[in-house]
């Protein structure tokens, strides 16, 4: 009997997708769940799929996602030209492989690697795969004798929980406490020992958009090693911030300028400004990636190392990433990211001025911020606010924080390239219109159980 997910069980009253006869093509009905016995006219097949997808949310109005939802027409054309290329097949598509290699070198330079032209790194399907590779490298470099563990904040993305589960590493989470929503050097140090494979720090928490104190964590670990303690490497999960900080916070030391940072990942499909899915992982030097994890393939008459988990992936996103690097350059990225931060900080300020809301962050790190309701706004919840905005097409997530702040429920807004000051004004207008209706309620209509949004490993603890 085939294994099926309960959510995919077809409803008893719908066994077909009805096709409006105005299409004037046969067949008039196509099966919903059964494999079609006959083919369908391509225009009808297109229309069936197109019409159903119209019911998805508008990606440009999705303020929950960090993923890019706009690119220039030239990038769209270039990606269409590369959809059929498998970027993993470097022998057959050597120029695509060359573009990937150039992007790795560019990122290594951007992140101040000691020798950017002799680092190792690769593209991935996104930051989740990149984190898996970085975590595997940490585990293979570890030489302890007990159960390996990894230290991270409760605000890490859920991919780190998956890494620990899949590769049998004990996760040691630093819970949130009071107004501290991220990892701290002191709390990280309390959890490390000789079996710690590494400490994960985040440049841009998905919970509130803030940078974690990477330099402070590294300095604390430096002092521990100097006292004869274990020499523990640091990985920086820069899914968002690794392509914000170099342009907007150039004096902030968080990258390979800190000798303890062994590897960095980022999402090209977030603030790398490319459609999903593409991520990047770079190690500070070849010796940071154990050689047994590297496979070597023929490439332009020589050998090229590869270490991705995936063996089939379109080259379109790699081409689009290289195009975007060329198109914008350092100054172009700085202008785009600055505009995003300007919109985020201004939007945060104006939301705080509405009265019922209190900011946790203000968008001054990555261009995302979290806010909650003041204690005296008792007639509605953040989940009610989220639902009210959804009625106008906006997707603004509401969710509760993990241990030890499960009492705190917030809304979060992510500002991406393409979310302009004009769109921010429209969002504010809709929020202002919603508030009188919400304030007329006698009690919250939706509690935290109504939120289907969960993104952090800490949300499971």
TrEMBL record:
Residues 442-461 are annotated as: Disordered. It is an enzyme of class 4 (lyase). Keywords: Decarboxylase, Lyase, Pyridoxal phosphate. GO terms for cellular component: cytosol. Its cofactor is pyridoxal 5'-phosphate. This is Glutamate decarboxylase. It catalyses: L-glutamate + H(+) = 4-aminobutanoate + CO2. The modification N6-(pyridoxal phosphate)lysine is found at residue 270. Its EC number is 4.1.1.15. Pfam families: Pyridoxal_deC.
């Amino acid at each position: 009997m085939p294994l099926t997910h309960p959510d995919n069980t077809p409803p008893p009253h719908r066994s077909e997708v009805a096709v409006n006869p105005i299409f004037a093509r046969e067949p008039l009905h196509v099966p919903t769940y059964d494999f079609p016995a006959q083919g369908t006219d391509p225009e009808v097949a297109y229309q069936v799929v197109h019409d159903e997808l119209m019911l998805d949310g508008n990606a440009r109005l999705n303020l929950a996602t960090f993923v890019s939802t706009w690119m220039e027409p030239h990038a769209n054309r270039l990606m269409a030209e590369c959809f059929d290329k498998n970027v993993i097949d470097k022998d057959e598509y050597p120029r695509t492989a060359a573009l990937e290699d150039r992007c790795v070198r560019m990122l290594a330079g951007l992140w101040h690697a000691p020798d950017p032209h002799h680092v190792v790194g690769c593209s991935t399907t996104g930051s989740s795969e990149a984190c898996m590779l970085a975590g595997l490298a940490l585990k293979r470099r570890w030489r302890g004798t007990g159960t390996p563990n990894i230290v991270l904040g409760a605000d890490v993305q859920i991919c780190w929980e998956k890494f620990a589960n899949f590769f049998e590493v004990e996760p040691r989470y630093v819970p949130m406490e009071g107004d501290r929503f991220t990892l701290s050097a002191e709390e990280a140090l309390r959890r490390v020992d000789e079996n710690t494979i590494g400490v994960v720090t985040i440049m841009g928490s998905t919970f509130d958009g803030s940078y974690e104190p990477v330099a402070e964590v590294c300095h604390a670990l430096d002092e521990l090693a100097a006292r004869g303690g274990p020499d523990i490497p640091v990985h920086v999960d820069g899914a968002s911030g690794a392509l914000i900080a170099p342009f907007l916070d150039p004096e902030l030391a968080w990258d390979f300028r800190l000798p303890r940072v062994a590897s960095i990942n980022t999402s090209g499909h977030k603030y790398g400004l490319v459609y999903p899915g593409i991520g990047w992982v770079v190690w500070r030097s070849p010796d940071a990636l154990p050689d047994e994890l590297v496979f070597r393939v023929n490439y332009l008459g020589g050998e090229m190392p590869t270490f991705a988990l995936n063996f089939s992936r379109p080259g379109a996103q790699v081409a689009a990433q290289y195009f975007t690097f060329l198109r914008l350059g350092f100054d172009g990225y700085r202008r785009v990211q600055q505009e995003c931060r300007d919109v985020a900080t201004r939007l945060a300020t104006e939301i705080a001025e509405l009265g019922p809301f209190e900011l946790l962050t203000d968008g001054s790190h990555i261009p995302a911020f979290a806010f909650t309701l003041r204690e005296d706004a008792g007639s509605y919840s953040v989940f009610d606010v989220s639902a009210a905005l959804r009625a106008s097409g906006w997707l603004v997530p509401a969710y509760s924080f993990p241990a030890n702040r499960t009492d705190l429920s917030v809304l979060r807004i992510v500002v991406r390239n393409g979310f302009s000051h004009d769109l921010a004004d429209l969002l504010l207008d809709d929020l202002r219109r919603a508030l009188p209706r919400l304030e007329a309620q006698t009690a919250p209509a939706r509690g935290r159980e109504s939120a289907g949004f969960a993104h952090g490993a800490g949300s499971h603890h």
